[in-house]
Each structure stands twice: as structure tokens, then as C-alpha cells.
Amino acid sequence: MGEENKKVVLKVFRTNYNKNESSHYDEFEVPVNRWTTVLDALLHVKSYSDTSVGIRYSCRMASCGSCGMKINGRPSLACYTKISELNKDVIVCEPLSNFPRIRDLVTDFSQFFDHHKKIEPFIHNDLVPLDIKDKDDLVEFEQSPKEVDDYLQFSYCIKCGLCYSACPTVATDPSFPGPQALSQTYRYIADNRDNDKSTRFNILDERHGIWRCHFAGSCSAVCPKGVDPALGIQLLKGHMMGFSKNDKKVANLRAKNKE
Ligand code: SF4
Ligand code: FES
Questions:
Q1: β-strands 90-94, 7-14: how paired?
Q2: Pair 7, 30: CB distance under 8 Å
Q3: Which of 107, 163, 220, 232 is disulfide-compatible with 99, CB 3.0–4.6 A?
Q4: Are residues 122 and 14 in the same domain?
Q5: Which of 55, 67, 96, 223 for mutating ligand 2's site (highest number of atoms within 8 Å of CB)?
């Protein structure tokens, strides 16, 4: 059979939790070629077999982070997973683990984003007044290429939740912030424009916080953007252990700025 005539079976998890429906799998045969992604195949199903299959997607180019699902058991982006590379005749699509389910492949990201918001994912810098009225009061922060490199990798996160879905600690403790929120904390701690470490450290230094991570590493294995959250968490732990020293540095900087 020529590659252009190849077909695979998509086995899709189905349920509607809003209606308390019990779950089952539906199977659909779809034509695929070398470049067909799992998202393409699911959209083919919606166009030609069953319009009611629930999926979430937007960009189709691994940028928006909305099409995460388990594909043959592994948290993956459907738009970034080519069927030819899976090398299987049956492709199983299931909702991400560790997220409350809504319908079919769609999960609820509220808890995930709550963890993200809690770490205050923006630059804190009390050396710059928030109520700037005159553009001449604007301050420019210069960063060397090395200083940008310190956090750049971690800024590539698209909040797709794959790491959160793969994390064994999140699976047993939903109050644990998870690899995304923790590695984003490191992204801001490592950014030398940010000078408020204590707020975020206090948020994470608690019973359900950063110390629950036991470095399974599954978060980094599934990240589609090369963020390496496990590395960020270990580096963040190091910063927290040396916090008093760093805090002194910040205090000196503040004092110098006031002179
Ligand atoms: S760290 Fe990677 S896997 Fe986790 S949310 Fe960000 S992009 Fe997705
Ligand atoms: S559709 Fe945007 S990441 Fe897949």
C-alpha cells in the first residue's frame, strides 16, 4: 500500500462529565500521509465522521499550548505529533492526567492557571515607581547576553500543561504548584530586573510547596518547548537555600539606589 493510501485507527476517549456520562472509547479510521498530525486526524474525524468529538486547539503550530492530550499514553501536543513518527496503526487519544475532565479530550485548566497566577508571573522591581507620570521618569534596564541567557530557556513556556500532567507529585497532591509554576518562578528569580525574591519564596516555602518535588524528571521529558522544568526547580531550590545571602545583595542595591 502506498504511503498516501495509509489508514490508521484513532481510538478516542469519550465522555461528558457535565452530564455524568460513563466513559468509553470510539474508534475512527482516518487516512494519513507522512505529515498528518494527530490534530489533523482528529479534525478529519470531526469533519467526516463525528462532529461532536470534543477537542481544544487554536494555533496548530505548537505555540498556543491548547491541544495537549495523552497520545498513546504520553502527554503530547496533538498539533506537534506526527502520526508517521508514532509508527503505530492504532493511536489512542485521551485527556491529560492531573486535570479535571470536562468532555472527551477537553480538560479544565483553572487549577493549573491558579498555581501560575499565585507565583505572580511578572517582574517585581520596587526601585521603579509604578505610578510613572512623565515619560522622562521611565527607566531602561540593560541586560547583557549572559544575563538574558540566565532565564531565556524558561521564558519559552507556552503553558500547555504537559509537564503538570506528567508530574507524579501533582498526581498525589493538587495543592503542589507543579513544574510549570515552579520553573516560571525560577524564570523571574533568574531575571536580574526582578528584585523581590521574598514574596515568591514565601509562597513556595510551605508544606505543599517546592520541597515536595522529588526530581522524577518526567516534566522535562514531555516538555515540547525544551524548557526543562526539572532543572529550573533544582536551581530554584538552590536559590532558596542561599536566600539570605541574595537578600543582602538586594538590600545593598536598594540602599545604593537611595543615595
Ligand atoms: S514547562 Fe513545558 S510542558 Fe510545562 S507548561 Fe511550559 S511548555 Fe508546557
Ligand atoms: S493548537 Fe496550539 S499548541 Fe497545538
A1: parallel
A2: yes
A3: 107
A4: no
A5: 67
